[in-house]
């Protein structure tokens, strides 16, 4: 683990509101500036005592089609779009108050978060941001899916996704990769929206889930493409999967420097990689501390 750029927070508070996809409840999200080394802290403003939880892989809980974290009664669902925006915009310290357990679905993308953060402004802080530089290839498999982390020569992280869909005629096979800079993410990735097939939507409705969600709230694909909607990019689905990958790996809690590619992976496989990277970061930090201690002893 090596020290990199200075840490950042937002300059002023910003707010968003909307309904959750899964709970259908109206939720307010307020993002506040935070001191150095706070990290991303999620707060349940609707619960007694306003319990909090770090947005960290160590607090991750298993869930279908989304990424959740929890600390006791402080549960937070579908945090990946928020986390992707914070990570890509290089916001390291932020307290996020949420008036419910599920973050709002908004338009199914990270763009509303990006717009709010851009309006809040950025503050450069005195502390340095820790980074994990990938110096080996790590590959994890799950059935026919896999995810890899490998070294990158440029020093700028690269995220990519290859989508291979089983059902013919609904969503085409597609791929997308990008260097993760604030400009590229904001322009080319943040607007990419959540998507499901028509059959998946019907299955969710049959279980009483997301009945309030309309065809304009996300992309629903039928045999002839999006239903009552249009794609923002030809490969919007792959771009959104890359967005999810950024948000899920942001739970490692450090700046990642490497190339991260997923083939047909989802939140669960992303979570496994985040856990592996966290373990690597912890080991690397321990080595740095030992090296620093030895350097001080020699200097004495």
UniProtKB/TrEMBL annotation:
UniProt enzyme class:
hydrolase
PANTHER family to which the protein is assigned, alphabetical: UDP-3-O-ACYL-N-ACETYLGLUCOSAMINE DEACETYLASE 1, MITOCHONDRIAL-RELATED
Q: Which domain of life is it from?
A: Bacteria
Q: What is this protein called?
A: UDP-3-O-acyl-N-acetylglucosamine deacetylase
> Gene that codes for this?
lpxC
What cofactor does this protein call for? Answer: Zn(2+)
Pathway the protein takes part in: Glycolipid biosynthesis; lipid IV(A) biosynthesis; lipid IV(A) from (3R)-3-hydroxytetradecanoyl-[acyl-carrier-protein] and UDP-N-acetyl-alpha-D-glucosamine: step 2/6
What reaction does this enzyme carry out catalytically?
Answer: a UDP-3-O-[(3R)-3-hydroxyacyl]-N-acetyl-alpha-D-glucosamine + H2O = a UDP-3-O-[(3R)-3-hydroxyacyl]-alpha-D-glucosamine + acetate
Q: What GO biological process terms does the UniProt entry carry, in alphabetical order? A: lipid A biosynthetic process
Q: Which residues form the signal peptide?
A: none
Q: Which GO terms describe its cellular component?
A: membrane
The terms under GO molecular function for this entry are: metal ion binding; UDP-3-O-acyl-N-acetylglucosamine deacetylase activity
Which function does this protein serve? Catalyzes the hydrolysis of UDP-3-O-myristoyl-N-acetylglucosamine to form UDP-3-O-myristoylglucosamine and acetate, the committed step in lipid A biosynthesis.
Organism equals: Stieleria maiorica
EC assignment:
3.5.1.108
């Amino acid at each position: 683990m090596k020290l990199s750029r200075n840490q950042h927070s937002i300059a002023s508070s910003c707010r968003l509101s909307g309904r959750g996809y899964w709970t259908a409840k109206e939720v307010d999200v307020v993002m506040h500036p935070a001191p150095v080394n706070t990290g991303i802290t999620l707060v349940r403003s609707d619960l007694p005592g306003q319990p909090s939880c770090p947005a960290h892989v160590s607090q991750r809980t298993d869930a279908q089609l989304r990424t959740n974290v929890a600390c006791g009664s402080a549960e937070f669902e579908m945090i990946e779009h928020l986390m992707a925006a914070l990570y890509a915009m290089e916001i390291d310290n932020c307290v996020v108050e949420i008036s419910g357990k599920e973050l709002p679905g908004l338009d199914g993308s990270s763009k509303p978060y990006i717009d709010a953060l851009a309006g809040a402004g950025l503050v450069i802080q005195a502390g340095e941001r820790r980074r994990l530089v990938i110096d080996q290839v790590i590959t994890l498999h799950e059935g026919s899916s896999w995810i890899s982390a490998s070294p990158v020569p440029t020093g700028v992280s690269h995220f990519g996704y290859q989508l291979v869909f089983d059902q013919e005629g609904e969503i085409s096979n597609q791929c997308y990769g990008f260097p993760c800079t604030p400009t590229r993410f904001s322009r080319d990735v943040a607007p990419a929206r959540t998507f499901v097939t028509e059959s998946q939507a019907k299955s969710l409705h049959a279980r009483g889930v997301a009945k309030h969600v309309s065809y304009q709230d996300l992309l629903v694909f039928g045999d002839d493409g999006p239903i009552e909607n249009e794609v923002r990019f030809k490969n919007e689905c792959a771009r959104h999967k890359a967005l999810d990958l950024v948000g899920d790996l942001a739970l490692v809690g450090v700046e990642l420097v490497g190339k991260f590619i997923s083939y047909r992976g989802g939140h669960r496989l992303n979570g496994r990689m985040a856990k592996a990277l966290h373990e690597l970061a912890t080991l690397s930090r321990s080595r740095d501390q030992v090296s620093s201690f030895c350097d001080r002893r020699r200097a004495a």
